[in-house]
Write a structure and sequence with these properties.
alpha/beta; 15 strands; 6-stranded mixed beta sheet
Length: 313
């Protein structure tokens, strides 16, 4: 699959601190890409380089197979920062038109597209309101609309669900999936790991400016699995059903076991054991770690001495 974005050995220093330290990755066109990391990991600095707000000290950014040029390529990107960039005193309709014109749309084209989005998001009555009169969730919807209005190739969303109720969060989530199917690429940055598992195809994890994980969500979870299985039975379990060298019992109740399989044996060996005991198995599922578990494990394994690594003078 063609890559829309390639980041090669990107570095960004502030004074004597490494905010982004030799980070490389690529993003396939049409994918939903998760950018993860704790506070101070370098995520925002990285996004600001990709959008041309910051220039890298070293490294290269390729967009659609060509070297990224903020002057020429900014219209291909939509960026929704975590810190809201709306004018509080300006009326919402006029503000949306103004921001769309900055991205190259004519006033008439902008007005038509805005009306379509406002109907879709039930925002028709907001046109003459000011941003300062909106709740956080309402301003979040407006910011999303102004980010995607010009139909950019690459859409960057930093904490897009912040302040949204479940109904409006689902509205935006559905739009993310729709745009991805149409070939738009989404970079999704958040602290909410359950959202990443639900939405993203591929993730990278940054910590202290360095990339410490890169892969598809499915592959990452498989790489960190621990041979844990949950087995539910129709029959009541007896002590003799758990005294076996095939596995270690992690937890149990009358009709369920959580086990850790010994690596020398297969799942078929375990199933055969229970069948020979005359037990009827209701379900047998491998327990893959959550992205949240993996995130915590990797971040906590990194030395905590400094938020950034100091450059040697």
């Amino acid at each position: 699959m063609q890559n829309i974005l390639e980041v090669k050995n990107l570095k960004k220093y502030f004074a004597t601190q490494k905010a982004v330290d030799d980070v490389s990755f690529s993003i396939a066109k049409g994918s939903i890409f998760g950018l993860l990391g704790p506070n101070g990991a370098g995520k925002t600095t990285l996004l600001r380089m990709i959008t041309g707000i910051f220039y890298p000290d070293e490294g290269e950014i390729m967009l659609n197979g060509k070297k990224f040029s903020p002057e020429n390529d900014i219209g291909s990107i939509g960026y929704m920062p975590e810190e809201r960039g709306l004018y509080k005193k300006m009326k919402i309709g006029e503000q949306a038109i103004y921001l769309a014109q900055l991205k190259g749309l004519s006033r008439q084209e902008a007005r038509e597209k805005i009306k379509e989005w406002f109907v879709k998001f039930e925002m028709q009555s907001w046109w003459d309101k000011k941003v300062e009169d909106l709740s956080k969730g309402m301003s979040q919807k407006l910011q999303f609309v102004t980010t995607v209005l010009h139909e950019p190739d690459l859409i960057i969303l930093d904490e897009p669900f912040s302040g949204l109720d479940p109904v409006n969060a689902n509205l935006i989530k559905d739009e993310i999936f729709r745009m991805s199917k149409q070939g738009h690429t989404i970079i999704f940055s958040t602290h909410r790991m359950e959202q990443v598992e639900e939405i993203c195809n591929h993730i990278i994890l940054l910590n202290k400016g360095k990339k410490i994980l890169d892969g598809s969500v499915k592959q990452v979870k498989n790489d960190f699995k621990e041979n844990l299985f949950r087995i539910e039975f129709e029959d009541q379990l007896l002590p003799e059903h758990t005294a076996i060298h095939l596995f270690q019992v992690i937890s149990k109740n009358d009709h369920e076991l959580v086990i850790k399989k010994n690596e020398d044996f297969s799942t078929n060996d375990i199933l055969q054991f229970f069948i020979t005991k005359g037990l009827h198995i209701h379900s047998f599922n491998e327990m893959l770690p959550s992205l949240n578990d993996i995130f915590i494990r990797l971040v906590e394994a990194t030395p905590r001495a400094r938020q950034f690594e100091t450059i040697n003078a």
